[in-house]
Design a protein that fits this description.
Blueprint: H1 25-49, H2 55-72, H3 83-100, H4 108-126, H5 134-144, H6 165-173, H7 176-188, H8 204-211, H9 222-238, E1 242-243, E2 251-252, H10 256-261, H11 268-282, H12 291-308, H13 325-340, H14 354-361, H15 376-379, E3 404-412, E4 420-426, H16 431-441, E5 450-453, E6 460-462, E7 472-473, H17 479-482, E8 489-494, E9 500-511, E10 519-524, H18 535-546, H19 577-587
Parallel strand pairs: 6-7
Antiparallel strand pairs: 1-2, 3-4, 3-9, 4-10, 5-6, 5-8, 8-9
Helix pairs in contact: 1-2, 2-3, 2-4, 4-5, 6-11, 7-9, 8-9, 9-11, 12-13
Length: 588
Amino acid sequence: MAKKKKKQKPKQGHPARLQGDVISIERAKVKRGLDALAVQFTRWLEAQHGDSELAPMVLAAVGETLGFYAEAIELRSVTDFDPPQLFTVLTATIEFEEAEDPDDDSGELRDLVFTAWTVYLDFLRENGLWDGDPAGLEWLLESINSDDPFNEPSAKKPLDVPETAEAAVAEIAQMQVSKMGRVLLAWATTAGHSYWAAGPGPEFIPQAAHAVRGLFPKDLEASSRNNVAAVLLSALERAGALDTKIAAVPEYGKNARDFIAADTATSFESNYAYLKTVLDLVLEQPERSDEAGLESWGLANLWLLEAVDGKAHSVAAARDELFPEAAWAGAHQRMELLRSLGLVNEGSTYGIPGIVRLALTDLDSEEPGGDAPLEPDMANLFAESEELQEEPKRLKRTEPYTGKALQLKLTLREAKPPIWRRVMVPADLNLADLHDIIQISFDWSDTHLHQFYGKNYKVSYGPQNPHMKSDIDESTVLLSKLFKQPKDRLAYAYDFGDDWRIGIEVEDVLKADDGQLPRCIGGRRMAPLEDSGGALNWNEMVEELKNEQPLTMMDDVIPEDASLYPGEDFDPAVFSIEEINENLDAEF
């Protein structure tokens, strides 16, 4: 089943400053969580240390710093957070406050924060309240109580950061990630217009990746290239170098000139904002359900943290037995991807450039020189592309499929003129796979609920979803169990607001050939656009186009300033088997 995309959370300002008298939702969540633990914590502190009066001070220090964490990074709960990222937040917070008063060398804030967190983490561990990885908790305690996290700065390798803005922007400009960004900016505002239709069309991201193909390592797979292209385009958008409007075409943003120039001090802000956003997106935490991805992500982040601390991890180091082989290999893959972007240095260790070290420790979420944060949907316009998956795509078959193949006809109900697809699919797939095939065949984005229905709607099949109850989990039902002979049928519904309904009929049961499976072998007309109001609305819109009238039925889908008229960059008769099969091949 296609994986859901996690939306990027809007930033809340610098993690070391409260925004006036207003308490954010994130801080309120922290307060509620700590309030619920306050009585138990106070009793434990009295029993362990004989001084319950320290409890409010400890919880206040923990709450303040955990509030910074929650506003910069998604917090699961006050008993479950990411240790490396929390350690980075503590570091940045202390360094920021110390920079505010450079004459104060007492170290009182540092001592207070570390003492409070040591006590709190001991409380979580001894009372069995820690919900995260036990190894992560031990690592965090060891890091906080180590002799040299902050107290002996001379022992740490100093940040190798250029002293002037001109030198810094020149360093960023020479990085592979910036070279790719400039190429993508030029492509998106010219040739990319051909692949833009009310937002990034299905070919926009693959074609963007193709535009920078010469800058990728030759052995990097297509799905990873697409993911990187989507991330870089999103970063350009957030940094103000690229401007997109729904149903319009990408244009240069207000900071495009500075980003492209990259040779003056005034160029630093847009280039640095772009670099920080790329890091934020590339290092985003996977879904908790993806255990393998989560382990490799945490390990890669640990190596980055070591690099920030001047102790770069050796590429050839033997696997730590605390980590499974899959997590260890996955972490190396993540680091190699960062290396392909120039965010990690070449060589025998995973060292990082000085400007990257600075960006990783700079948690100021107010982008330099930027205005208010982008709206969440616009900020994730590219990151939510169907090409950008947070979890790995399903594994490719290692051997050719030799079983039965089903020839299915997928017909959109109530569509006039008719809209349909004919596909060949392996019989050993399940209904969740068929859902993905339908989404790709109709160029939909899988952003709404769906369900399959048996004969006379007596039984329903769907995903495990708290928002909708199905009789049977679709991922447990093989197609071979439902489709045994021609004329066998199933119904499919998608987006219960627009109510798209597709009839699925078996036309033939064949022996698999040597061709791509699944694959589309026929069809007619483009599928309706998402959120266009249902089949009847779509039919009326197509009729208006036929009569050369303004597309009034599309007012809620295409903004007025797009000035889209019949025949202009829009043809409901368009249908491409090649595009569908390319996307099917990328997924299966």
